[in-house]
Structure formats: C-alpha cells, structure tokens
Design goal:
three-stranded antiparallel sheet, two-stranded antiparallel ribbon, 7 strands, mainly alpha
C-alpha cells in the first residue's frame, strides 16, 4: 500500500471539527481522491445550517463564521465530479452567507467567530480562497489585506493569531506555527486562483507569502520542528507549521514564482522529514499533541496529502518544462 493510501485511510478514521472536515475535503480534492471527497462532501451538507454554513456540529453554530468556508472548493469539486446539484446548491448558499450575512466590521472584513468582534489568522485559509475560487477575486484580496493589516508583525515577519477589533489591538501576542501555515497557504491559494489580468495582485500576494515563509524558516529547525507557538518555549515541539510550508513551496515552485535554487532543497528536505514521521498505520506523527498516543491530528493528515499533491504537480511541471526545451 502506498504511503498516501495509508494516510488517507487514517484521515478518514478521525473525528473532525468543522475546519478539520473542510481541510480534509480540500486535501482529498487536491490529491485527487474524489470518491472519498464525495462522501465527505455529503456529510458536510448533512451537518449544515439553514444560513448556509456546513460542517457544523452542535454548539458550533454559536461560534464559527469562516471555518465552514474551508469546505467550499471540495463542494464545488464534488458537484463537478458527480453532477449532483446538491453540492452546487450548498456551495452557492455558503457563498451567499459569506458575502452577505457573515458578521464583519465597518470595513467589511469578516470576523472569525460570532461571539466577539475578532479576526483570527485561521480565517486567512478558510475564507479568501473560497471567495477566489468562486470568482470573487477583489473580495478575496480585500479580506486577505484586512487580516494582514491587523495581524502581520514586520519585525518578526510572522503573523499574530488574534485581533480584538473592538479594542483595535492584537489579542494574542505570540505566533502560532500552524496559524502562520494557514496564512501562507491561504494567500498562496488566492494568488494561484487569480486570472492572468490580475498579475500585479498575484505578485503582491506571493510577496507577502514569502515574507512570512522567511519568518517561519528562521524559527524552524532543519528537521522541520519548532515550538507549537514559535516564541513560547513552554509549548510542545511539533512539525505542523513546516508541513504546511513545504506544500506551499511546491505549489509556488510549480508555477515558477519563487527561486528554485533556494526553496526547492528546503521543500525536499522537509518532505523527507515528514515521510519519516508516518507510522505503519498511516498516522503522521509529531504534527500535534491532540492525540497523546500518536501525536497526530486531522490537520497533519490533510496537509501531508496537500504537500504530496503539490510535490506531484511540481514534478509534472518540471517534466513538461524539460520536454519543451
């Protein structure tokens, strides 16, 4: 059995929260596991609210705003794969929620939760890519810039986790590794979804992405390990941020948007480190401490598959480039 088959099997075994379900759908879509994606998309609709939010468990309706949007591209792919209009209807309804009903500030930047006027860095991955693949390019960029302006720290080239929009100040002063991963992956996905006539906007998104990439590399070991909160040595050591980073590098390398001399060796080194952390059952270890026995998480399974899909696509692009010489 291929290592990715084991990782998919292990991923399907996890109990998942809203954002984890959406991340899993995105991973299955990017990897091309469409049969598994479709059943995940069906379950996302089963766990939906009348306002359009999907993947909602009891209690989450009182909190989550942007996390359900993470399932958006998976829903669209499920519709295209099956022709079943229920997936397209769910996609359209969630888009209507995101554009017109989600709570936001006076500048139109969407909050992460319903209970407080807060921006969370997680939203960078959940919302703007969904808007971009829906063709709402300007709105996607506006949301990215709104989160960036509040959460980016130029001194560290990293992004804070939370912003209190009532107090107009950072609500979480430290830098979480997985959330900085969300940020670079979200910006890269928006950049790659933009049409050719938005090259300037794409280049600016890539520039911002690589600023944070460099900040992450400075606090990540050669083996991919860092503290879960980069600047808090009391947090556990894990590989979750670097796992997302490797996939982002492969995606941008495939489009020839970043320097391969610098970044390809980094992506390859990190990928090999992660392959060594997959156990015999397909669980990607050391990406989190959610499970004290395996040190694994749904995030780790999903972003391992996303990394592998990105590496595969980079390899294909390299072969095509060589053939055209």
């Amino acid at each position: 059995m291929q290592i990715t088959d084991k990782v998919i099997r292990a991923l399907m075994s996890f109990q998942r929260r809203c954002w984890e379900h959406g991340e899993a759908m995105q991973a299955l879509f990017e990897f091309g596991a469409y049969d598994e994606l479709v059943v995940m998309a069906k379950q996302a609709i089963v766990m939906s609210l009348s306002d359009g939010r999907v993947c909602i468990q009891n209690g989450d309706e009182k909190a989550l705003v942007t996390d359900p949007c993470c399932a958006g591209e998976g829903l669209l792919a499920a519709w295209k794969y099956t022709g079943d209009v229920q997936f397209k209807h769910a996609f359209d309804k969630m888009l209507d929620y995101a554009l017109h009903h989600a709570p936001r500030n006076e500048n139109g930047i969407v909050y992460h939760v319903t209970r407080a006027p807060e921006f969370w860095l997680d939203s960078m991955y959940m919302l703007p890519p969904f808007l971009a693949i829906a063709g709402e390019y300007e709105e996607a960029i506006r949301q990215v810039n709104g989160y960036w302006d509040c959460l980016y720290n130029p001194e560290h080239q990293l992004m804070h986790w939370m912003w209190d929009d009532a107090k107009k100040q950072v609500a979480w002063p430290n830098f979480r590794s997985i959330c900085n991963g969300f940020a670079i992956a979200g910006m890269a996905r928006v950049a790659l979804a933009l049409p050719e006539n938005m090259k300037a906007e794409r280049d600016e998104l890539v520039r911002k992405t690589m600023l944070v990439v460099e900040g992450m590399l400075r606090v990540t070991g050669e083996d991919g390990y860092s503290h879960c909160t980069y600047d808090d040595p009391n947090t556990h050591v894990a590989m979750n941020g670097a796992l997302i980073l490797a996939g982002v590098l492969y995606r941008l390398l495939a489009k020839n948007l970043i320097d391969r001399g610098r970044y390809l060796p980094i992506a390859n080194r990190l990928r090999m480190a992660f392959h060594q952390r997959v156990d015999e059952y397909g669980f990607v270890e050391d990406v989190a401490r959610r499970n004290p026995y395996t040190r694994s998480s749904p995030n780790g399974q999903s972003f391992f598959l996303i990394m592998e899909a990105a590496c595969r696509d980079f390899t294909i692009s390299e072969k095509e480039r060589q053939e055209t010489k």
